[in-house]
Amino acid sequence: MLPSELIGVLFAITSAAVWGAGDFSGGRATRRSGQFQVLVISELSGMAVLLLCAALWGESFPDLATLVWPALAGAAGAVGIVCLYRALSMGHAASVAPTSGVIGAALPVAFSAITQGLPPVLRLAGFVLAFAGIWLIARPALADTTVSRQGFLLACVAGVAFGAFFILVAQSAPGKVFTPLVVARGSAFVAGLIMLRATRQPFPSLTSNPIALFAGVLDAGGNVFFLLARQFTRLDIAAVLSSLYPAGTVILATILLKEKASRNQWIGAGLCLAAIVCITV
Q1: Which of 28, 130, 156, 214 has an alpha carbon within 20 to 30 A of 17's alpha carbon?
Q2: What is the per-residue burial (b if ≥16 Cβ within 10 Å, else e) of 118-130?
Q3: What percent of the chain has pLDDT over 90?
Q4: Would residue 58 be called left, alpha or beta, if left means φ above 0 and alpha means ψ between -120 and 50 degrees?
Q5: Pairwise CA distance, residues 134 & 105, whole Å
Q6: How many independent structural domains does the chain possess?
Q7: Residue 4 half-sphere exposure, CB side, CA atoms within 13 Å?
Q8: Is residue 164 a part of any domain in this protein?
């Protein structure tokens, strides 16, 4: 692996760690506010941080044609979150979460294979190990493994939406990081407002849920590291390694909340480590 690709791998792994912390914080935030309210608050805080970073780095906005991609990516991400939350609210998290996670990671791999060609066999093996690891880590212990047809379809839509986010946001203008993500989060914020209106929920006070604000900052950070990774390596490598974020969520829950990870989740974590080795060799 070239030194530049190794930098991309490190950025992608960092993205997974930051996203994992963001998901952990978002899960805690939904215990205080509704899921759509958490979505709106977190998108707003993330957008504010990205705007500040863009101003500090003096990064200008790309042309209008290029901004279409991050705008679509933000909308896709919002759809994915809504579908995932809806599917999880119906129960059967043991099937819903891993289904959406694996599909979201697999789509960029298929897209890269079409546009850039297949990677080496060892790297493909790493992708397979990563998919298996994501599946095992995302499955809660002692959960009902049955799933309704509607729940399965929602999980598939969520996975497709997350995969679309990876693909679309990666089409942003080369060399730009913060401003495309500002547009993406702005699009997701508008989608969140529409969901609030549709469910007749009030707009939340920004001080009502500090954890949601923090989750938004972490999620924005994960987006930044993913885009940085994409600038140094292939989309499939950046997307698959960034998709290992459930491992970070489980580790934080184990350390901070003293939750016990199942044996399958520890096996999944081991598979993710093996995947990283295969992908980076």
Answers
A1: 156
A2: ebeeebbebbebb
A3: 43
A4: left
A5: 9
A6: 1
A7: 5
A8: yes
Q: Where does residue 142 fall: left (phi above 0), alpha (psi -120 to 50 degrees), or beta otherwise? A: left
Strand, coil or helix: 187: helix
**For the chain, how many residues are written?**
281
Q: What tens digit of pLDDT does each residue of 14-26 get?
A: 999 998 888 888 8
Rounded to the nearest 10°, the torsion over CA 275, 215, 11, 104 is 50
Residue 219 lies in a domain: yes
**pTM for the structure as a whole:** 0.89
Answer yes or no: are the C-beta atoms of 229 and 8 closer than 8 Å.
yes
Buried b (16+ CB within 10 A) or exposed e, 197-226: eeeeeeebeeeebebbbbbbbbbbbbbbbb
Report d(CA 46, CA 214) in Å as an integer: 8
Output the 3-class SS for 106-134. Answer: HHHHHHHHHHHCCCCHHHHHHHHHHHHHH
Asked whether residue 61 is domain-assigned, the answer is no
- What mean pLDDT value characterizes the chain? 86
The number of angstroms, rounded, from the C-alpha of 259 to the middle of its chain's C-alpha atoms is 22
Does residue 66 lie within any of the structural domains? no
User: DSSP 3-state helix, strand, coil percentages of the chain (rounded to 5)?
Assistant: 80, 0, 20
DSSP 199-253: TTPPPPPTTS-HHHHHHHHHHHHHHHHHHHHHHHS-HHHHHHHHTTHHHHHHHHH
Domain span including residue 274: 3-56+72-280
| pLDDT tens readout for residues 57-112 | 998 887 777 889 999 999 998 888 878 777 766 655 556 677 888 999 999 999 99
Under DSSP, the state recorded for 173 is P
